[in-house]
């Protein structure tokens, strides 16, 4: 599938709920993938004639913002990684507490032996 810029002409629409059966020049839109830095990998419906010369610059997002499957997978992955990080932080805090307690006890025993 061809890459597609998400910055289109004035007749473009990012607020369409669903895709049109035809674009502004009467052709059926095709599914494309955005290659912009703002929307990398986001799917959209665009004019089949885009960048050919007689294209109408029609586009509509295939999924509403925030409902893109790739975005949802990344959000799920981030949530999972956050949970793993919290578990690791708790284990580290416990290990640190046990270590401090152990060194404190060793210091007290050594202090008792010296006195």
TrEMBL record:
Pfam families: Zn_ribbon_GRF
Coiled coil: 71-98
GO molecular function: zinc ion binding
Protein name as it appears in the record: Uncharacterized protein LOC107465996
InterPro entries per record: Znf_GRF
Keywords attached to this entry: Coiled coil, Membrane, Metal-binding, Transmembrane, Transmembrane helix, Zinc, Zinc-finger
The keyword Ion transport appears for this protein: no
Residue spans of biased composition, Low complexity class: 1-13
Transmembrane segments: 92-111
Domain GRF-type intervals: 23-65
Domain of life: Eukaryota
Annotated spans, Disordered: 1-21
Key word Magnesium present: no
């Amino acid at each position: 599938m061809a890459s597609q810029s998400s910055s289109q002409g004035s007749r473009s629409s990012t607020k369409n709920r669903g895709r049109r059966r035809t674009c502004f020049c009467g052709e059926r839109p095709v599914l494309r993938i955005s290659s912009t830095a703002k929307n990398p990998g986001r799917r959209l419906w665009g004019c089949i004639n885009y960048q050919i010369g007689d294209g109408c610059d029609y586009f509509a997002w295939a999924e509403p913002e925030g409902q893109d499957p790739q975005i949802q997978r990344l959000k799920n992955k981030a949530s999972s990684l956050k949970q793993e990080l919290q578990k690791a932080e708790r284990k580290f805090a416990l290990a640190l507490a046990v270590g401090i307690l152990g060194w404190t006890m060793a210091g007290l025993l050594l202090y008792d032996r010296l006195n």
